[in-house]
Amino acid sequence: MSGVLVVMEQRAGTWNKMSFEALAAGQLLAAKLGVGVGAAVVGDGLQTLGAWSSSGKVDAAFAVEHALLTEYTADGYMAALEQLIKRLAPAYVLFPHTYQVRDFAPALATRFKQVLISDVIAIHDGPVFVRQLLQGKLNADYRQTGDGPCFVSVQAGTFRAEEQQNTAVAMEIFTPTLESTQIRNKPGELFRESAQTVDLSVAPVIVSVGRGIGEQENIGIVEELAAALGAELAASRPICDNGWLPMERQVGSSGQTVSPKLYLAVGISGAIQHLVGMKGSKAVVAINKDENAPIFEVADYGVVGDLFEVVPALTKAVLAAKS
Amino acid sequence: MKIVVAIKQVPERDAQIHVTADGKWIDESDLNYAINEPDAYALEEALQLKEKNGGEVVVVCAGPERVTSTLREALAKGADRAIHIEADDLGQRDTLGVAQILADAVKTESPDLILTGLQSDDLGLGQTGVVLAELLGVPHATIIMQVELVDGGLKVKRELEDGWFQHVQMPLPALLTIQSGGNKLRYATLMGIKKAKTKETKTVTSSTAAGAQAVTLERVYLPEKQKKTEMLTGTPAEIAAKLVEKLKFEVRVI
Lengths: 323, 254
Ligand SMILES: Cc1cc2nc3c(=O)[nH]c(=O)nc-3n(C[C@H](O)[C@H](O)[C@H](O)COP(=O)(O)OP(=O)(O)OC[C@H]3O[C@@H](n4cnc5c(N)ncnc54)[C@H](O)[C@@H]3O)c2cc1C
Ligand SMILES: Nc1ncnc2c1ncn2[C@@H]1O[C@H](COP(=O)(O)O)[C@@H](O)[C@H]1O
Hints:
A: 19 strands, B: alpha/beta, Rossmann fold, two-stranded antiparallel sheet, 28% helix, 29% strand, globular, binds adenosine monophosphate
């Protein structure tokens, strides 16, 4: 194999949906290069995995199975994938940019003296891989200049199969050689923090506040706007990190995913980890003093201005319109 | 317990960014710099571990002369020593190249624990810590919110997607990449700033010259706008009136 290998992700027999985005990216890259595309998934007892949701073809699929791969560990995954990649010798290895991939793919690339091109948002002819710098303020073109396999992870939500179809893909079993002594970390069960008291996912209107608010004392003006609109209050990560609002109001990849009729973002820059949590909103309004803030890329209506002037004026206008 | 914390200096968040004429990087001449935010949390975690268990906290940063200001701030917050890896050519080094010079500096310290931030605000690679662990041959865990010493090893809380977490146990020495929000950050006290002046900052030159890179950054540019955002302009009152119209008749939430 000299083509593209896509490493898919599953946990306890359930696909991580981003796997199929990585597969779509792999199919796109393979078509550009005129090579085949293979896929691999790591775990144990993988026959129970559901159908693949892909419109393109998969030339070969591998179930990388071992009892020591039942639970994810970086050591287990790296050792297993290192062996598979050595056998298949693909030119490109693609991953979805999940938290799990962040945990092992950079070191896997190191074993091949290569560098992962992480969190890629586009693939152009060359191939040239585009990734974001400065939290989305700039884009950058990267090219592989090493001579080993090229490792690439793709950002959530950027590659989609045109027509998703459920297809059954036959998998060849690949059994890596693993010893329990190779695995240094002991993973525990997954858990969530104490029960959530707000479910932002059902809120029809959300007013969300970001670091632009400056101080905890200032949050009041956003609360007043939320109250005027009958909206739930949400926040970006730094607001919750600072303890200005509870963690359960955080929107984003490590917080809640929301899809309200209106998402009004106040002083939020629009980093990808925030956007993945609110991209599904029907309408987005952004208030930000920086006209180049990435949040405007997902906003239907934008206001470039000082939130300390715009927000109180808006609260007043909403109250007037409602009375 | 000896802890090394890798901290990076990055442009301040509100900095106005301009791409250089050759399109290869950003114009650094007018920029102000600060500590990478997750690295501040990594330092905080290290300081708290030291307060609980004793030991030493050493901060290390690779970069040009200007990064010593960030190292000094870390000393003022309570780090015991600093190592400045003098390197003006970080732009010509890929992740492996940067991790290699960090690894060489860390090795001479033989720490029990190495902490990095999970991701840098400027390059956003999210890789340097993981690659460093591989080069050092120590186990690692990423996106860590809490660290405890248990039975001579570590028990850490890893953040996963969608509000899930997981505990992981691991032996020492180990490397962790730290997520923001696990602790409350401290400020440097006046006393701390004074004391920092007496603390050691060792300058070492990067062990190897920048060699061939496995990946190369070719060009940086402003992203093309794809979405047609309707911009509302005017005085705050005019903007508010226009927005209310939209919310009433288009979005229909009023
Ligand atoms: C693994 C991982 C997971 C993450 N998970 C999440 C997550 O779940 N949710 C999340 O939100 N983030 C998450 N992040 C963090 C994310 O990368 C960003 O750092 C964060 O979203 C930035 O928050 P912000 O936009 O509020 O702050 P900043 O990026 O600092 O933006 C502040 C904005 O306010 C604007 N502003 C400042 N003053 C004013 C003013 N007076 N008027 C108007 N505008 C003003 C500025 O122009 C700027 O755009 C995660 C990061 C990582 C690496
Ligand atoms: N030049 C550097 N000096 C010290 N630490 C660094 C440097 N570059 C990256 N790091 C560390 O690696 C982490 C991840 O960076 P990155 O891989 O660029 O996202 C940062 O949070 C720092 O802790």
